[in-house]
Amino acid sequence: MTNLAAANLWQRKTRSAISIFGIAIGIALLLVLKGMLMGTIVEITSRMKNTGADIFVYRKLEIWGGTQGMPITWMNKIKDTTSDKVESIIPIIQDKIAAIGEVNQENRVWGLRGEDLKNLNVELINDGVSRAFNDDQYEMLIDSRLAEHAKLKVGDKVNYLGRNWRIVGITEIGVGVRVYVPFTILQDLKSEENSADIFAIKVKKGVDAEQVGTAIKKISIDVPGKPGETMGLPVQPIISATMYETFREKAGIIDDFANYVTFVALIISFLIILLTMYTVVVERTRDIGILKSLGASRMFIARNIITESLALCVLGVGVGIGISLLAAHVIPIISLLNVTISPAWIGIAAGMGLAGGILGAMVPATLAANKDPVVAITYE
Amino acid sequence: MPILKTIDLKKSYKVGADWEPALNGVNIEVEKGEFVSIVGPSGCGKSTLLHLLGGLHRPTSGTIFFDGDEITSLPDAALTEVRRKKMGFVFQRFNLLPTLSARANIEIAMRIRGFPIDNTAVEILRHMGLGEKMHHKPSELSIGEQQRVAIARAIVNRPKLLMADEPTGNLDSENSKRILAEFKRLNKEMGQTILMITHNPEAANIAARILRMKDGHIVEN
To answer: The whole model's pTM is what?
Structure first.
């Protein structure tokens, strides 16, 4: 059985290779897409955690970088309400830079007060020329990975928000964002006077961040323009420790998209196998007749077709996983994207590829098993 | 008791709206160890008869007894089992699996028949003078060699009945002689029951008995 399947596959090397490649592309597409989504979330959450902040407060529904800031008065309100539990609150202005140097990929920018760089663990690399920015200058810090990809160094100029910014320092990777500029300057340029987009909160030792988050949600403020009326502070505190889960939840639409791609990959595998094995059955009609004349049962013939199909799928899945792992290694080198391929998703992709292979082979296998032996053996 | 017996065997095929008779009540008996040839002109029903006897097709009416059992009413799976365990086929066009070597062609037949894969295929190929070519694929063998592999495959399970459909039809005279000699040897030395269809009188004459067919009937026994 195995010998016959292997011999048949070997006989049609090109077709077998194309089928394997087709399945591999479907699997790789699925794994890389899912891996990029996971990689992005893992990277963002790990960067945020590495700032050392325990809670990030955003205006409601603005987690992905909204444009509407929160008044600094809200920060003061939070500070007053939680002063016994909170060590520090750091205001951050968040923006995006569409292209920088040779990198044409959007990167997040944080506007920070110079004094807060250290508070958020933003460290300069030890290159002898890097320094922190001055709060009143158009000066910029970028991380070393962005500097490498963008081919930028200390002293270079970057155009951003219609101004020329001078790069004054290169930071270590893995903390916060890749680009930092002075808080007040970004505030002015974004016309967000007296407001910030994120409040990064560090709680005191031994304090439960969840409790502080709950306390923040309970803060009420006056409704603007309606004296005497109050409302809850329209903010969303995200706890660093559970940020991954929160972001996964927020990334639901993208996750759904990845799931649709998974489904499409399954259909592609199914169709490739269906067409390949259907062609195989038509082409080997005579061989099927021979096997029947030798006394091969319908099960033997069907199993032979399914074995061939499974062999193609196993190889396709193997090559697909190989391509994905290679992509996961190469993509971060050639771009700023990260790809995280989890063993669970490798298992899911492998299962889907094999399931597609078995399902796709079912119809051709049934056709083969039901062939009239005399018609088959005289087939030209 | 004959190993093979048919009673009033009929087979018709639907051609357009009509039924065309291919066999019109065939009655034959073949004893164990006999070598029987069936001869007749093209279209007389020889191959149809062989397909019915081999369980590859079902008769329109009539009965076939094989090895003491009535096989015409057996379900498909049971008929396949009979073919697998008790019958061997040799075809005019050899019908070897093109992707397998000579040895693998025999071994797959052994596997289908549930035999352990031992040295039998090698021995039988050596016996047929094909020991050196056991790893060759059919396309690398001459037509005579291909037919010898086909015979080796058909007899590897020691079938009770070996059926050959024009086994020399595609062969030159020298290869024909060799194949016919092989059939004769199998019959004489191993007592193999053989039913051979041919339109070649020379081939038919090596059998102990000749049945002549015409228009779906046995006209001479």
So the answer is: 0.75
